# Entry
Amino acid sequence: MSTFDWITQAARLREQGRAFALVSVLRVQAPASARPGDKALVLADGTIHGWIGGGCAQPAVLRTVRQALQDGRARSVRITPAAQGSERDLGDVLEFGMACHSGGTLELFVDPVLADPLLVVIGNTPVARSLVSLAPQLGLRVAWAGVGLQEQEVEGVQCLAGDDPQLLRRELGEGGFVVVATQGQRDLQGLRAALALQAAGVWFVASARKAAVLRQSLIASGADAHAVQSIVAPAGTPISAHTPPEIALSVLAAVVAARRCGAPAARAVPAPESLESDAGTAQGLSPEPQAASCCGHGASSPEPAMPESATCCGHGATSPESAVPESAVPESATCCGHGASSAEPPRPEAASCCAAREPEPAAVAGRPAEHAAETHSCCGH
# Structure
């Protein structure tokens, strides 16, 4: 391998969505076969592309690389003559003992390059298309699955013409994030495909009541109850979204929060008996808790049921659901499950993983005192 072949290898690994660490030699105390500036790409499986010294240093490097790929933190490493297996944390550098006869010392910098998370969008709908268009701008690799899609539907996006669970699992593997934006077209099939991927988070673009009915259908058909209850619906951050691009923006905000702050918080599921309708109004439906912060963390407060109306997603009375009677699935004001801003009560303050918040003095905020506490999270809700 020539001096700069690691650049070509790095581009190839990025295209494949594989994580690696760029390991650079900082300092060398002879005798050592590496020189300052030498570099290598090291994968978690032990594959090394490049040169950072002989085999004596490799066990310590590989161990450090695996740790860095797990937590995403860069590390400085010193490998020096000492008892084999010894390790000291010196604050700004990790020191490993090496019992090789050469007696040289290496200082290395291990910089993890994590793969962009995969977002799988299921559904051939306007909201799905908006998601596929916006997601790559957020550093997400995107796969789009839906009946009727063409193989080259969107440039740079892996498109699968179908929603068969086995097809998706074979082509995409496990993990990543999934958004089911089927909007009344093959909803159950889309949810089954999402569950087959065993993703880190699954969002369903639908009202809470509709999602509750479909959850019960999935569990009745043998789906894992814990995985089903973890499906987040309504999907997205509450921004009173109505158009497909607005809904996509809302959902992607929740995906970014889950990526940066942890797994998405599942919404509470109404009991099946609470879904019985009387003249289009659900009886005894428990309010659905809504997290106060954009990350979905922090204290939750009951949110009043949203008014029913037709939605921009086509889930209104004119869009019957084949698997679930429309009368059993009253709709919220939008397919995200969020109503108009005028209908939403003020949200209580809660801890947010985005940023710790202190009470904001009115004089500092430049607002009247009675409005000083309007913003309750980093998202402005």
